[in-house]
Amino acid sequence: MNDYLPGETAIWQRIEGTLKNVLGSYGYSEIRLPIVEQTPLFKRAIGEVTDVVEKEMYTFEDRNGDSLTLRPEGTAGCVRAGIEHGLLYNQEQRLWYIGPMFRHERPQKGRYRQFHQLGCEVFGLQGPDIDAELIMLTARWWRALGISEHVTLELNSIFAHGTVRWKLVRITAMRWWHSLSSIKKSWTKTANAACTLTRCAYWIQKIRKCRCFSTTLRH
Fold first, then answer.
1. Quick check: 54 and 47 in contact, CB under 8 A?
2. Taking every annotated instance into account, which residue ranges of this chain make up the domain Aminoacyl-transfer RNA synthetases class-II family profile (predicted)?
3. Residue 96's pLDDT band (cuts 50, 70, 90)
4. Is pLDDT of 217 > 50?
5. Total Cβ atoms within 10 A of residue 95
6. Cβ atoms within 10 A of the Cβ of 112, count?
7. Which whole-number Å values give the CA distances from 133 to 18, 20, 87, 121, 139, in the listed order?
């Protein structure tokens, strides 16, 4: 974790102002989310058998014995807020948020355990249009910030060489092999991870009813 001194805050303000202007031109509305959330929210959304939940979350108990967590990402909180406040039922929503996130990751140069993330979440819209919109939105951010000459936008799709189901089978097999060859993973975690992957084909149909696409910038 680090401080941002007066000379650096001006840069942050320019970046944030540019991002807000671009988001507004695409019809996105800001939502402000709590920094602290109930721990079960992230366990359900991210998955209990993940490095984020098992190793990287800052979790503590309050005086009432409730388990709370400093948010490691923003999607789970945004979906929770949308459900609790009735923003998602038969509605189309384009939302964005920005703020500090926290992960107890291995220290690296230029990568801090408190980082700032901007996220866009879209609900209630069908089809691939939103995917294209978020790609164009990201490219426009780069141009507005004057960094488009220093970054490269590459597109990828899991449909390029087979169906989603076949990809899931391959991913499951690869994950099993990796888990079996690693002494760091227990058999219980491996079984849970494999079961989660094999259920993905079912949930793909469910997700279409409330599509949620996210693009993030991390620092």
1. no
2. 1-154
3. very high
4. no
5. 22
6. 15
7. 18, 16, 21, 12, 10
